[in-house]
Design goal:
- It is built from ten helices and seven strands.
- 47% of the residues lie in helices and 13% in strands.
- The chain has helices spanning 17-22, 49-53, 68-79, 87-95, 99-122, 140-146, 158-165, 178-193, 208-225, 229-239, and strands at residues 6-9, 12-15, 58-61, 83-86, 128-131, 150-156, 198-202.
- By secondary structure, it is an alpha/beta fold.
């Protein structure tokens, strides 16, 4: 077992965070050699995401029927070291009622209150892929929780969504024109969804694997573009010719 490098700074000894956290894992989409295993084995880029995330949660947002639960579950399974949580499923188990039953009993405002409480609980965990309800973004207080992780928006056209959920019992679509209702909701929430860190445009021809692969690629790229503060400080010091650790 290799020992981590001890560095000295300010009179104290400490472990190099590049070794403790980063584990020298790079973006596999920019360095395909990282995905090569023994023989014909290929390493899934999802397996290389955990060390780079350093425990940071992934939050999936988007309209109902956009595939947040399905894709979130696929990503978590492929990562291997992250758990998948679905806020709607947790709400139903906690209330011992279905989402439509909660809407009928408490109304949308009551449901949103419960939803906020569930998010408040789950965001305290680490190493989770979390699928959220379509309207969760509407409460600004929820964004303080979402922004503790990386937020991924699955952007799917209402027409595509309707092919997936036609005949649904979803409470907000119990109208004379469900498609128009869906379009109206999408327009109302678009500004909130656009606050996500990553936007994945999902088209009709994309299956779960293709969507998941695009999500993984964009998360790896996002980490490259948004390195931890200590890494930026170290890079700046080195660029300035300062030997900040010896």
């Amino acid at each position: 077992m290799s020992k981590s490098t001890l560095l000295k700074a300010g009179g104290f000894e400490w472990e190099d965070p590049a070794e403790v956290f980063d584990q020298a894992v790079e973006n596999p989409f920019k360095n395909p050699d990282l995905m090569k295993g023994d023989g014909d084995m290929k390493i899934d880029p999802a397996r290389l995401l955990g060390p780079r995330l350093q425990g940071t949660n992934l939050y999936f947002i988007g309209m109902m029927g956009s595939g947040k639960s399905a894709i979130g579950d696929v990503i978590a399974r492929r990562m291997g070291n992250y758990n998948f949580l679905d806020t709607d499923t947790i709400i139903e188990k906690a209330a011992d009622m279905t989402i439509p039953e909660i809407f009928e009993s408490e109304g949308e405002e009551g449901f949103r209150g419960v939803e906020a409480q569930i998010l408040d609980s789950v965001h305290a965990y680490v190493r989770c892929v979390i699928s959220t309800g379509g309207g969760l973004v509407c409460r600004m207080q929820n964004w303080s929780k979402l922004q503790t992780g990386i937020v991924v928006w699955l952007d799917v056209a209402p027409e595509v969504i309707m092919t997936r959920i036609e005949g649904t019992d979803r409470p907000l679509l119990q109208t004379d024109d469900p498609l128009q209702t869906l379009k109206n909701l999408s327009d109302e929430r678009k500004e909130k969804y656009e606050q996500a860190d990553i936007r994945i445009e999902v088209t009709q021809d994309m299956d779960e694997e293709k969507v998941a692969n695009e999500v993984l690629k964009q998360i790896h790229d996002f980490i490259d573009d948004n390195p931890p503060a200590w890494k930026k400080a170290k890079a700046k010091a080195q660029a300035d010719g300062i030997d900040w650790v010896q």
